[in-house]
Amino acid sequence: MDTQLVIDCGECALAETAACDDCVVSFVCDRGTEDAVVIDVGELRAMRALQRGGLLPDLRHRRRTG
After folding, report:
1. How far is Cα 37 from Cα 29, in angstroms, rounded to an integer?
2. Cβ–Cβ contacts within 10 Å for residue 47, how many?
3. What is the pTM of this model?
4. In this predicted model, what pLDDT tens digit does every residue of 1-56 receive, in sequence order?
5. pLDDT at position 20, please?
6. How far is CA 36 from CA 9, 29, 52, 53, 61, in A?
7. Can you give the pLDDT at residue 33?
8. For the purposes of burial, counting CB atoms within 10 Å of the CB of 64, is it exposed (0-12), middle (13-18) or buried (19 or more)?
9. I want to staple 9 with a disulfide (CB 3.0 to 4.6 A). Which of 4, 33, 53, 57 is the partner?
10. Which 3 state secondary structure label does DSSP give 1?
């Protein structure tokens, strides 16, 4: 199992679409679209718990293929 999740808008298939408007990354920090967000396993578990509780939207990041 990976010990961290890397969210990089440059690698997201949904980048620059309406999905960005309420992407969970916007709730984590204010940063440029060229900057990746690195989340460790504990933080990912906490985010998922907040998502299940309706306090955060679901993670929409999808790694581009090809």
Report:
1. 9
2. 19
3. 0.46
4. 556 777 777 888 888 888 877 777 655 655 666 777 777 888 889 888 988 998 87
5. 79
6. 7, 11, 24, 25, 12
7. 66
8. exposed
9. 33
10. coil
Structure-token pair, residue 27: 């709730």
49: amino acid identity, one letter: A
pLDDT value of residue 31: 62
C-alpha 49/C-alpha 42 separation (Å) is 11
Q: What is the DSSP string of 6-66?
A: EE-GGGBTTTTSGGGGG-HHHHH----TTS-EEEEHHHHHHHHHHHHTTSSPPP---B---
Q: Rg of the Cα trace of the chain? A: 12
